[in-house]
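Researcher: Next sequence.
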Amino acid sequence: MTGQVLVDSDAFKERFESLAAKAQKSIYIQAMSFEGDSVGEWLVDTLIASPAKDIQLCLDSYSKFVINDRFIYSLGYFKDEDFRAEVKNTKAVIKKARANGIKVKYTNPLGFLFLQYPHRNHKKMVVIDEEVSFIGGLNFCEHNFEWHDMMVEMNSAEMAKSLSNDFHRSVAENDQSTVNNLGDTKMYYLDGYRSRNIYKDVFRNIDEAKESIQIFSPYVSDPLLTYTRNHKAEGVKFDIVSPGINNKNIFKAILTNELMKGYFNFYEYQGRMSHLKAILIDGKKLICGSSNFDFISYYFEEEVVMITENQEIVQNFIDNISKPDIANSILKKSLGGKRSIVVPLVFAGISRLCHVVASIISLKYLFRKSNV
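Model: Next structure:
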């Protein structure tokens, strides 16, 4: 397998446009968020112009209710004319896609009284002609495209087949919780709390670190944080790179509070929101995909995660993400003050509630979905 790390949306757009224009067989795209702004319009227009015969777009039902990080059934919807126009245009762009032969499927309905709201399909992937594939963090909306992010391109028919199979299972709402071993790379298809035993295999990479662990995520939290604190070998350097401008400040508060325990270095990425999701082990192994390595992903969300020792991709990540991002970050120092009592208590309460709700959802879906 060959591959490369595409940094930020412009690099992905250029590469995707080139491949879509030459595609002959199929283009499969999965994302959590899709919006009728300039990015959503660009994607649909690019797909319509492609000669590929089978074009499918799989979106989470989240996009039917949340646009630009705002809930459409709110007072803001009635007060903001631009917001209403974007909601209306999202429906129009989807209608245009379908009218031009693009199959669009919304998965994971929110259910009665939104009781299934936590259970989202958070995957981001693209498969073209079952030869070239991408995974990473990009959703198809303007604000996400403005964030610092990445998509990993992989040129491998075997990888594309693995991702294509998962895509079709998502479309059929027959989601899997499994691992595909592809030589120097493993693909993890995760389904929240149902996949807790598979997550153990992901976390074991922390135990195996001999020199360094670098986590890049805006929302990193438990169970990964506590696991790393308790399991990393003595002397292993542990760095967390997370944005100073965070759209969910509770996670910044969690990291600031944890920093006082002294078991990691906190690099605060500067300039804009970073939506990156990756773990680099010893500079030799890369864990990346759609998971934010937070409690929401762990308990509720369907994710795709790759663990690779492919040195071309790993080195590409080091050169284009790890080194420049740390250089563009401020090393935050613990002031050695008293840790907040409120933050860990609130977080522990939320985590416990997630555990209970996820257990209930897991039981329900166990009988409705295949587990292989």
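Model: The chain is about 40% helix and 25% strand. The first helix runs from residue 8 to 22.
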